[in-house]
Structures are given as structure tokens and as C-alpha cells.
């Protein structure tokens, strides 16, 4: 449970918001990756391809949160970004999570100033701790999810990933990160994530 400690003893008739913080791809790169994935969807049988407006790098998953806690959360997030400057990231190789023959996630890796990304992620986790949010126990592995749940008739061929990385210009593009966002999840909508707050450096 990730309710704000200061209000969790009370009851609210407001539905909780499922929140997370993230870095978005630039608009140009979202379009390029979206075009790449539309081509890939004709060759790779994944059940769900991410909407191009939803491409992001998760910083911290916050979970179900009382809407009354959001102003304090936004204030803490803004303080976390104080004196933090823009940095550059790039997409790199494609990869999968899960069983090699039937992966559950197709993703794009990251290059560029990833140390800056990790520092930002650490600042956010530290800033949200006093509000009752907790860091995930698993190691932070930043990536951009492209598709989920392989459903091909035959086993997935990992060799396709090597060819994809070599041939797709979108997987080598870079962009300047000068803001990040607080997202709310809207299940079954397309796009599925709605911006609650944008935080500029």
C-alpha cells in the first residue's frame, strides 16, 4: 500500500490514482519508434503494442495514491529536481524480458548519460520516502517497453533482435531530457497514461 502516511488513517470517497514518475521520449522519437513498431507488428506476434504516446522510462512506480496526497507529492518531486540540469539519452539495442522462446516484454535499451538518469531516479525515491512511498526491491533497470506478451505460433527468434538493432535508425537516436512527468494510469484507454504534472529542469 502506498498511501500518504499523513492521510492513510482517514477515509476518502475519492478513487485512488495509480501513479508513477517517468521520462518521456521526445515527440519526434516517439513518432519514429511508433513507426518502427507498426512495421514490427507485422512480423512479431506480440499481443499488445504500446501506444506511441505512452513510450517512457519509468523512474519510480508509486502505486495507488489518495488524490488528496498529490499536491504534497508534486511539491516533493519538484524539490527533487531542484538544481538538476538537462541531460542526453539515446536508445540502443532491443531486448526481451521473460522466457527466450515466449518473452513477456519487448524493450529498447538506453545509452547516453544514464548516470544522470539514475541520479534523478535516486533523488525521486529519496524525496517520496517521507510521504510513505517505497522503492521497489528489485534493481533499477531503465528501458522503454515496446510490446508485451509474445503470442507467435512458433518460438520467438532472438536473432530478430540483432537484425532490428542494426537496421532501425530509431534505436540509435538521442534526445535531450529537460523534463519529466508524473503519470496516472487510465486502464483500457489509448493512450493509457495521462500527465498529472510536468516538471522541468
UniProtKB/TrEMBL annotation:
<dbReference type="Pfam" id="PF13563">
    <property type="entry name" value="2_5_RNA_ligase2"/>
</dbReference>
<feature type="short sequence motif" description="HXTX 1">
    <location>
        <begin position="56"/>
        <end position="59"/>
    </location>
</feature>
<dbReference type="InterPro" id="IPR009097">
    <property type="entry name" value="Cyclic_Pdiesterase"/>
</dbReference>
<comment type="function">
    <text>Hydrolyzes RNA 2',3'-cyclic phosphodiester to an RNA 2'-phosphomonoester.</text>
</comment>
<comment type="similarity">
    <text>Belongs to the 2H phosphoesterase superfamily. ThpR family.</text>
</comment>
<keyword id="KW-0378">Hydrolase</keyword>
<protein>
    <recommendedName>
        <fullName>RNA 2',3'-cyclic phosphodiesterase</fullName>
        <ecNumber>3.1.4.58</ecNumber>
    </recommendedName>
</protein>
<dbReference type="InterPro" id="IPR004175">
    <property type="entry name" value="RNA_CPDase"/>
</dbReference>
<feature type="active site" description="Proton acceptor">
    <location>
        <position position="143"/>
    </location>
</feature>
<feature type="short sequence motif" description="HXTX 2">
    <location>
        <begin position="143"/>
        <end position="146"/>
    </location>
</feature>
<dbReference type="GO" id="GO:0008664">
    <property type="term" value="F:RNA 2',3'-cyclic 3'-phosphodiesterase activity"/>
</dbReference>
<dbReference type="GO" id="GO:0004113">
    <property type="term" value="F:2',3'-cyclic-nucleotide 3'-phosphodiesterase activity"/>
</dbReference>
<feature type="active site" description="Proton donor">
    <location>
        <position position="56"/>
    </location>
</feature>
Amino acid at each position: 500500500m502506498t498511501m500518504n502516511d499523513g492521510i492513510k488513517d482517514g477515509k476518502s470517497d475519492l478513487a485512488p490514482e495509480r501513479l508513477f514518475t517517468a521520462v518521456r521520449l521526445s515527440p519526434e522519437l516517439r513518432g519514429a519508434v511508433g513507426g518502427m513498431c507498426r512495421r514490427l507488428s507485422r512480423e512479431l506476434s506480440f499481443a499488445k503494442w504500446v501506444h506511441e504516446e505512452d513510450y517512457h522510462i519509468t523512474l519510480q512506480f508509486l502505486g495507488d495514491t489518495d488524490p488528496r496526497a498529490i499536491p504534497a507529492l508534486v511539491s516533493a518531486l519538484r524539490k527533487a529536481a531542484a538544481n538538476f540540469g538537462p541531460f542526453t539519452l539515446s536508445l540502443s539495442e532491443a531486448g526481451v524480458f521473460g522466457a527466450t522462446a515466449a518473452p513477456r516484454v519487448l524493450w529498447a535499451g538506453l545509452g547516453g548519460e544514464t548516470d544522470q538518469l539514475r541520479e534523478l531516479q535516486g533523488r525521486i525515491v529519496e524525496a517520496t520516502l517521507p510521504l510513505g512511498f517505497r522503492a521497489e526491491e528489485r534493481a533499477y533497470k531503465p528501458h522503454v517497453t515496446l510490446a508485451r506478451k509474445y503470442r507467435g505460433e512458433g518460438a520467438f527468434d532472438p536473432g530478430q533482435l540483432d537484425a532490428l538493432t542494426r537496421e532501425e535508425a530509431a534505436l540509435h537516436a538521442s534526445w535531450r531530457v529537460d523534463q519529466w512527468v508524473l503519470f496516472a494510469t487510465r486502464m483500457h484507454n489509448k493512450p493509457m497514461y495521462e500527465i498529472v504534472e510536468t516538471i522541468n529542469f
